[in-house]
Write a structure and sequence with these properties.
heterodimer; A: 146 residues; alpha+beta; 2 domains; 3 helices; 29% strand; elongated; B: 683 residues; Four Helix Bundle (Hemerythrin (Met), subunit A); Tick-borne Encephalitis virus Glycoprotein, domain 1; 4-stranded antiparallel beta sheet; 21 helices; 11 strands; globular
Chain lengths: 146, 683
Amino acid sequence: MKRQRKFLAAGVLLVGLAGYLMVTAMTQKDAMTYYLTPVELAERTAANPAFAEQSGVRVGGRVVPGSVRFDQKTLDLTFTVTDIEHGTHAFPVHYNGPLPDTFQEGRDVVVEGNYRPGGTFQASTVLTKCGSRYEAAESDFKGKQS
Amino acid sequence: MTQIGEVALWLALLVAGWGAVLGFYGGRRGRGDLVLSAERSVYAVFALLLTASGCIIAAFLRSEFRYKYVAGYSNRELGLFYKITGLWAGQTGSLVFWALLLSLFGSIVMFQNRRRNREFMPYVAGTVLAVLAFFMVVVVAASNPFQLMDFVPPDGRGLNPQLQNYWMTIHPPTLYLGFTCFTIPFAFAVSALLSGRLDTRWITTTRRWTLLAWFFLTCGIIFGMMWAYVELGWGGYWFWDPVENASLLPWLTGTAFLHSVMIQEKRGMLKMWNVLLVISTFLLSIFATFLTRSGLIESVHSFAENTTIAYIFLGFLGALILVSAGLVWWRRHAFAPENRLESFLSREAAFLVNNLVFVAAMFAVLWGTTFPLISEGIFKQKIQVGPPFYNRVNIPLGLILLFLLGVGPVIAWRKATPRNLKRNFAFPLAAFLVVGIATRLAGVTNTYALLTFALAAFTMTTIAVEFWKGTRARAKIEGEGLGVALVHLVERNRRRYGGYVVHAGFVICFCGFAGKAFNSERQAALHPGESIVIPSAFGHTYQLTYQALSWYPATNMTKLVATVEVKRNGESLGLMTPEKRSYKQREEVTSEVGIRRAWNEDLYVILAGIDRAPEFMQGTNPQPVVTLKVLVNPLVPWIWLGGFIMAMGTLVALWPAAEAVRAPARAAAREPAGAPVPGLVGA
């Protein structure tokens, strides 16, 4: 029985190691990011302007039609994101890199990066919610009726 | 067509529900007639789902756009191939497809066991049918593929261009094959619990099913990585996206299960653990399907947020957990181990640690994946967990696995003697040190990468020594040549040597992952004739010269193609042609990356930007400036190679051995047809 206890202790040790890895992984930089809507971002930064300045945040919003500028040479992308539900609390976003394939005006995107109220959201990643993966609503076909 | 397909779906629901009740009731009461009816229900559901799927495909082929599903995922210009694969392109179709595969596997199991394992089969039929009934409820209640619109659009929306890719058409069905296949071992575990036969029988009976499920799941995950790599255009293959994670979860517990069953077969230990593992694997398969289908967690893969489906799935998962836990608790006294662990230096201990590591990795990934939901529930705040978390946890765990991979198969059962250790590990340890020092001297400073390569050398050496020892022994005893002896050796011990091959593939994959530490990338805007120079971790440099841009129309899209000449250390390697495609139907633009694959690295070119493209196509901008993004991804080809070797190794282990082919015939001769009454072994 004594030996079995030894094995149990080893097992506990291993589980402890895994737990330790998980805890340290959670607390390291950039492991956890807030996922907010533009409205929530505005509330947070109103309370604390430096809220999204140091550690990055993720914001899910809609690309405002007509706001997209993409420099084909420098790959600088700027656009305005607004709240999907309310259509308010718009803020400008800047991103550098190849345009994600499904990025389009009016689409829903998730931007990750740093932001200071009044400034531009500096995005390190732009994720497009794959609009085409959405189920088509019936209204999507109506425009095609002749 | 509507009527036939929809009626088939409703009938499938009724028959599955009916058969599930009969299977469990007939099994408990020992009513052979009811059990027979339940088994026939499985065949019937398969026939009905085949009909329904046929109707969906027919609707695609005939471009019947009054169906919302067809209109959403097809159009007139779509190729025949993608019209057929439309069956699983969208949510509603893919749920029918899932059920179809399960009913197919269920039918095969029923047929295989029509005269065997009679005490199990009522509950196996019952479990499979209960799962099928659940899927049919989801389909008819929340996502009916035969839903009509009140008008007929002239054309459909077409298939998402990103899905018009070869890998994407085989990736989902392969994953589904894996998910559904795990239902069979699960069904046998449930029947073992219900019938009280908790010896190794349920495990040996389902050994091939487990391997087959693992084979499909592994291939499915790797196909998904290949698709992401060529199609998403960011040069990576794994993003720790919730749905990728979801497919990894059952893989982790399934792999643990494959190993721990050996302990039960050989030593009669870990009986309850095995039941729990197979139950979790099945639950995680359902969870993975649920995550993809419900859109509950933000993901590039998610379909529409469909809360009805989410509730039905959560209810089903909850019920499954309660019932499984209840069954295990009910039988808790039947799991007594026949042996105990004797030493840390034993194969049992190595396998146990392997299992704990796999399960720990599973919990870490599950925790990270569901954390947004947890944090929203507790803190009213959605917090997402990013790749740094997963890497931090899983890389060390992966390295432990890599080490165990070398130890487990060669260390002695029960208790290893110092002599045994010295004989088995002297060589591999030497290889570990030599490769470790050599890669350090070659300039590798990343600790994880160094450890990966050194441990890979350690593990590969143990595998090679095993093959060598076996071959030499056989050659000596049988008087065969080495080549013949090797073939016969593997043939006679498929499971063991197939397993070694899988291990070798896994090690190669892991080296491929470690290659990420040495990536390089460059980006520049180029006039025709200008170049980008990019160094490779292997010491040479690539020079990419943008020569020209051309455009031409193709079916259903316009292509813009950049011609880029590639030189390595001044020596010409030919042309690469990254593209931009704009699809007419959905006004979508996709990038087709250019990839030049060598044995040790990929050169990956993205056509990221084209200055004044409309003017170029009108002819007023003949010398357009393009922006290229170039990546050198070392060792990525090893991931695909390792995956291929893993698949081949699994097939070797799966392939029926000569003896096994003959065995059922003998068994059948002993049990004359018609004699055994579908029976029961009561509680």
